[in-house]
C-alpha cells in the first residue's frame, strides 16, 4: 500500500513539474518554409537538418505587424517561428512571422 501511495505521489509530482514548463521562454527558429499545412510547418535551416514544428489552432501568423491567415504563408517564404514544447516535448509554433527575403 505504501508503494502505491509513493507511486501516485511521484506521478503527481512529475505531472506538476511538466505543467511548470509553461513558464519557460519561447525558443525562436529562423529559416525557409519547406512545407506548411494545418498541423505542421517544416522549416529548412542553413547548415542544419529540417525541423518539423507542430501548428495548432492557437498558432498566430504575422506579416510584419499584421495578423494573417496560415494560407498566406507558402513554401520558400523566410520565417521566424517562436515555439514552446508540447506535451510530447516537441516544438509547437506559438507565433510565425514572415521575414523579408535574405539579402545576398
Written account of the structure:
This protein has 104 residues and is of the alpha+beta class. It has a single domain, classed as Copper binding periplasmic protein CusF (OB fold (Dihydrolipoamide Acetyltransferase, E2P), Beta Barrel). Strands 3-2-1-6-7-4-5 form a seven-stranded mixed sheet, with no helix packed on it. The radius of gyration is 18 Å and the shape is globular.
What structural class do the secondary elements suggest? Answer: alpha+beta
Largest sheet: number of strands, sense, barrel closure: 7 strands, mixed
| Proper CATH architecture | Beta Barrel
- How many structural domains does the protein architecture include? 1
From the spread of the alpha carbons, the general shape counts as: globular
Helical content class: 10-25%
Q: What's the N-to-C terminus distance? A: 67 Å
Can you tell me the CATH superfamily? Copper binding periplasmic protein CusF
| Elements, N to C (H/E) | HEEEEEEE
Give me the Rg, rounded.
18 Å
In CATH, the topology is named OB fold (Dihydrolipoamide Acetyltransferase, E2P)
The CATH class turns out to be Mainly Beta
Produce a short descriptive summary.
The chain has 104 residues and is α+β, with helices and mostly antiparallel strands. 17% of the residues lie in helices and 40% in strands.
Features:
OB fold (Dihydrolipoamide Acetyltransferase, E2P); 7 strands; 17% helix; alpha+beta; 104 residues; seven-stranded mixed β-sheet
Write the layout of secondary structure elements.
Blueprint lengths: L1 H18 L7 E10 L3 E5 L6 E4 L5 E4 L2 E3 L9 E8 L5 E8 L6
Parallel strand pairs: 4-7
Antiparallel strand pairs: 1-2, 1-6, 2-3, 4-5, 6-7
Amino acid at each position: 500500500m505504501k508503494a502505491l501511495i509513493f507511486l501516485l505521489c511521484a506521478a503527481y509530482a512529475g505531472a506538476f513539474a511538466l505543467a511548470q514548463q509553461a513558464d519557460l521562454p519561447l525558443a525562436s527558429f529562423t529559416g525557409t518554409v519547406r512545407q506548411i499545412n494545418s498541423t505542421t510547418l517544416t522549416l529548412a535551416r542553413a547548415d542544419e537538418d529540417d525541423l518539423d514544428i507542430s501548428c495548432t489552432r492557437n498558432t498566430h501568423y504575422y506579416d510584419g505587424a499584421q495578423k494573417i491567415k496560415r494560407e498566406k504563408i507558402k513554401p520558400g517564404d523566410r520565417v521566424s517561428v517562436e515555439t514552446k514544447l508540447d506535451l510530447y516535448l516537441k516544438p509547437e509554433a506559438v507565433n510565425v512571422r514572415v521575414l523579408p527575403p535574405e539579402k545576398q
